[in-house]
């Protein structure tokens, strides 16, 4: 893609449709594209197959907004306890929830971004996590084969970007962002600061622009 990847919210939203599998980055609202998520809700995006670390909560903007507004049909996440709406919707049968151990979630996303067939992990052996999964023996020890996770769209949050889509994260805001930026067909980055090409030190860049399709300054 040549030229600037800077885009308006409206342009970016044309690449998101109801019913898609969407990755949203963040760790309990840290490093989460909360402003863009609100715009997604306002645009009426619904029936989402969502992959995220957690479900946010029920009183702040962000991933929790989509849950509270019943815009998610399936949630794959590692932690949902901070948002009581998840349990309510699970019990009502309106939300399917797939719980994945956090390290396993990160590695499955990494596999999706690097073209691997999956990851072998002992985490979950002998628990409900192992139900329906293949167990592979390595040197006499059992490992679960956890398959890759991939999305049609990923929305990530960066502190700073240039117009070619090179991203810089700030401290703990990095979390799941670099992994998700590699594991989707189309990647949108919400950024706080946008600079011209050449204004970022190459040593600063944490996600290269080749992984990013659009940059939205919010």
Residue-averaged pLDDT: 96
Which percent range describes the beta-strand content? 25-35%
The rounded Rg comes to 18 Å
Please give the number of β-strands: 11
Q: Please estimate the helix content.
A: 10-25%
Globally, the shape reads globular
Distance between the termini: 22 Å
The succession of helices and strands, N to C, reads HEHEHEHEHEEEEEHEE
Main sheet overview = 8 strands, mixed
Tally of helical segments:
6
The secondary structure category is alpha/beta
**What low-confidence regions span 5 or more consecutive residues with pLDDT below 50?**
none
Structure description:
The protein is α/β, with parallel strands linked by helices and about 220 residues long. It is built from 6 helices and 11 strands. The strands form 2 sheets. Strands 1, 2, 3, 4, 8, 9, 10 and 11 form an 8-stranded mixed sheet that branches. Strands 5-7-6 form a 3-stranded antiparallel sheet. Strand 2 (about 50), helix 3 (about 65-70) and strand 3 form a beta-alpha-beta unit. The longest helix has 13 residues, at about 100-115. The model has no long low-confidence stretch (mean pLDDT about 95).
Short description, anyone?
The chain has 218 residues and is α/β, with parallel strands linked by helices. Helix content is 21%, strand content 28%. The chain has six helices and eleven strands.
Which tags fit this structure?
about 220 residues, 3-stranded antiparallel beta sheet
Strand and helix layout:
Blueprint: H1 9-13, E1 21-24, H2 34-42, E2 48-51, H3 63-68, E3 72-77, H4 84-92, E4 96-99, H5 102-114, E5 119-121, E6 135-138, E7 141-146, E8 151-162, E9 167-168, H6 177-180, E10 184-195, E11 214-217
Parallel strand pairs: 1-2, 1-8, 2-3, 3-4, 8-10, 10-11
Antiparallel strand pairs: 5-7, 6-7, 8-9
């Amino acid at each position: 893609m040549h030229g600037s990847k800077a885009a308006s919210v409206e342009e970016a939203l044309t690449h998101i449709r109801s019913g898609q599998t969407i990755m949203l980055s963040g760790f309990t609202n840290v490093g989460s594209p909360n402003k863009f998520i609100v715009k997604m809700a306002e645009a009426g995006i619904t029936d989402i197959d969502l992959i995220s670390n957690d479900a946010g909560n029920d009183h702040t903007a962000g991933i929790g907004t989509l849950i509270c507004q019943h815009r998610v049909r399936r949630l794959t996440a590692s932690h949902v306890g901070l948002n009581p709406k998840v349990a309510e919707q699970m019990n009502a049968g309106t939300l399917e929830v797939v719980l994945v151990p956090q390290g396993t979630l990160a590695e499955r996303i990494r596999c999706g971004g690097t073209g691997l067939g999956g990851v072998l992990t002992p985490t979950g052996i002998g628990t409900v996590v192992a139900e329906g999964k293949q167990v592979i023996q390595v040197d006499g020890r059992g490992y679960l084969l956890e398959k890759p996770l991939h999305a049609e769209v990923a929305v990530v949050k960066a502190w700073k970007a240039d117009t070619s889509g090179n991203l810089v994260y700030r401290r703990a805001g990095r979390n799941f962002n670099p992994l998700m930026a590699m594991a989707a067909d189309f990647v949108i980055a919400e950024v706080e600061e946008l600079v011209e090409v050449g204004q970022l030190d190459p040593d600063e860049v944490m996600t290269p622009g080749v992984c990013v399709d659009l940059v939205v300054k919010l």
